[in-house]
Design brief:
The protein has 522 residues and is α/β, with parallel strands linked by helices. The protein has four domains: 223 residues, Peptidase S8/S53 domain (Rossmann fold), CATH 3.40.50; 132 residues, Glucose Oxidase, domain 1, CATH 3.50.30.30; 39 residues, no CATH class; 101 residues, Immunoglobulin-like (Sandwich). Helix content is 20%, strand content 28%. It contains eleven helices and 28 strands. The strands form seven sheets. Strands 20, 21, 22, 23, 24, 25, 26, 27 and 28 form a nine-stranded mixed sheet that branches. A seven-stranded mixed sheet has the order 8-7-13-9-10-11-12, sandwiched between helices. It has a four-stranded parallel sheet with strand order 3-4-5-15. β7 and β8 form a beta hairpin. It starts with 12 loop residues before the first strand and ends with a strand.
Length: 522
């Protein structure tokens, strides 16, 4: 993303995990070293921000003008699974790219299925080989998962084994099959992963297939005592459509710590990403993998986060005066949530339907447009403190984040509102009976003089949410000029837990500045 950037790396993870004390210390050292961007491809769980070491470290970095991007997590596709949701952190989900690594599975009944694989060793024979379901080759109640020691060697020797995905690592299942004398493996998704395909560097000829293909293969292997199969590896395929789609593993909103901040912020490439790889472990990352490679292809929001970090470095170089919030705003308001030319929303591979802002935030990053966003939503450190006050944080809790004296807390003479945080997206809360919610925002002109007109709409299912923006026109005569507006969201009653989505867009002759809307009835 930023090929001329200098990279400093701070080790915080060990065999036993990534400890909060190491993470926070590394962030402090990086700030002292003078970095411009902090990229954290780690996280786990959620906690109030004053107890979240990453949020604490990121607040100090933000105060110094350092952009902080973090992985949303790989706990999707369930709702409310993301971590790193503090509003001073840019939270990144994962999408696919238009490159794939097909591995075709042909069964003895003539049926063909497309899977994926990064296996590059000796191929299987072209003639059909015996095919067996792992659940029929084990004395274990969980034998279908190909857990360590669960397969009976006499039943799998020389055969292609069908293993169900889940519980242990995908590549680990290949080790189990290989150790039992199996010749190859088909790794079948279950309902938890659906049709999402993630290519792996298997240690034996192996292909990962979707849930539907896996179900068909399982039925065949269990019904035909002489079942056979072959696997053919087709290398690299480009131009895959549709792309991007949201990865099923990408963690989703809403933000469980502060629901008034819509998360994730954005998605970026995070599936089958090619990058340099350590020579100290094999491409699977597992003990016992003796292979060594200079580059590897892996997937996760740990891959999407550094894409955004690199883009932030480019924007910092192009606009050194921009704050971390301005950089995030530029990335978010220029992101796309529809496929070029088609008008169809970016798909979620977990559902097969268009993704929502709780899946993608503002959408997929668009680097070229982010350099010239027209308007930005800026936020200063003091604004975040006001937001914490609006969330009823106590003085000592705020001090844990700001490192200021606990007496410098919230003023009893001020009224604080979570809806006043100048975020580039809108998270709207309605009571079950419905009502009206008002949000205020201020935009700063970072482009040429011009007049912007607003268009906004939202709906829950087929029921519209009334969105009124005052004023509906903003005119700017110079760079750096600020204009404020108020948005009123009005809706009728809906069952608790209902979600609605929409978009608010300011447009001029030269720029489109878009913000996602997510509404929830509580």
């Amino acid at each position: 993303m930023a090929p001329r950037a200098r990279v400093a790396t701070y080790k915080v993870c060990w065999v036993g995990g990534c400890f909060s004390s190491d993470i926070l210390k590394a962030m402090e050292v990086a700030v002292t070293d003078g970095v411009d961007v902090l990229s954290l491809s780690l996280g786990g769980g959620t906690a109030e921000y004053y107890r979240d070491s990453i949020a604490v470290g990121a607040f100090s970095a933000m105060e110094k003008g350092i952009f902080v991007s973090c992985s949303a997590g790989n706990a999707g596709p369930g709702a409310a699974t993301l971590s790193n949701g503090a509003p001073w952190i840019t939270t990144v989900g994962a999408g696919t790219i238009d490159r794939d690594f097909p591995a075709y599975v042909t069964l003895g009944n003539g049926k063909n299925y497309t899977g994926v694989s990064l296996y590059s060793g000796k191929p299987l024979p072209t003639t059909p080989m015996p095919f067996i379901y792992a659940g029929n080759a084990s004395n274990s109640s969980m034998g279908q998962l190909c857990m360590s020691g669960s397969l009976i060697p006499e039943k799998v020797a020389g055969k292609i084994v069908l293993c169900d995905r889940g519980t242990n690592a995908r590549v680990q299942k290949g080790f189990v099959v290989k150790d039992a004398g199996g010749a190859g493996m088909v790794l079948a998704n279950t309902a938890a992963n659906g049709e999402e395909l993630v290519a792996d560097a298997h240690v034996l000829p192996g292909s990962g297939v979707g849930e539907k293909a896996g179900n068909a293969m399982r039925d065949y292997a269990m019904s035909d005592p002489k079942a056979t199969a072959t696997i053919v590896f087709a290398g690299t395929k480009v131009g895959v459509k549709p792309s991007p789609v949201v990865a099923a593993f990408s963690s989703r909103g809403p933000n469980t710590v502060t629901s008034s901040v819509l998360k994730p912020d954005i998605i970026a490439p995070g599936v089958n990403i090619l990058a340099a790889w350590s020579g100290s472990v094999g491409p699977s990352g597992l003990p016992g993998d003796g292979r060594r490679v200079g580059f590897n292809i892996i997937s996760g929001t740990s891959m999407s986060c550094p894409h955004v970090s690199g883009l932030a470095a480019l924007l910092r170089a192009a606009h050194p005066e921009w704050s971390p919030a301005a950089i995030r705003s530029a990335l978010m308001t220029t992101a796309y949530n529809e496929y070029p030319g088609g008008g169809n929303g970016i798909l979620d591979v977990a559902t097969g339907r268009p993704a929502t802002p709780l899946d993608v935030g503002a959408g997929h990053v668009d680097p070229a447009k982010a350099v010239d966003p027209g308007l930005v939503y800026d936020i200063a450190a003091a604004d975040y403190v006001d937001f914490l006050c609006a969330n009823n944080y106590e003085a000592a809790q705020i001090a844990a984040l700001t490192r200021q004296h606990a007496s410098e807390g919230c003023s009893a003479n001020r009224t604080y509102a979570v809806t006043a945080l100048n975020y580039p997206s809108f998270s709207v809360a309605f009571p079950a009976a419905g009502g009206t919610a008002k949000h205020t925002r201020t935009v700063t002109n970072v482009g040429q003089p011009g007049t912007y007109k607003v268009a906004a709409s939202a709906a829950a299912g087929g029921t519209p949410v009334t969105v009124t923006v005052e004023p509906s026109t903003l005119s700017f005569s110079r760079a750096g000029e600020k204009q404020s507006y108020t948005v009123s969201f009005t809706a009728g009653g809906m069952p608790s837990g209902t979600n609605g989505f929409g978009r608010l867009v300011w447009s001029s002759d030269h720029h489109v500045v878009a913000s996602p809307i997510a509404a929830t009835w509580t």
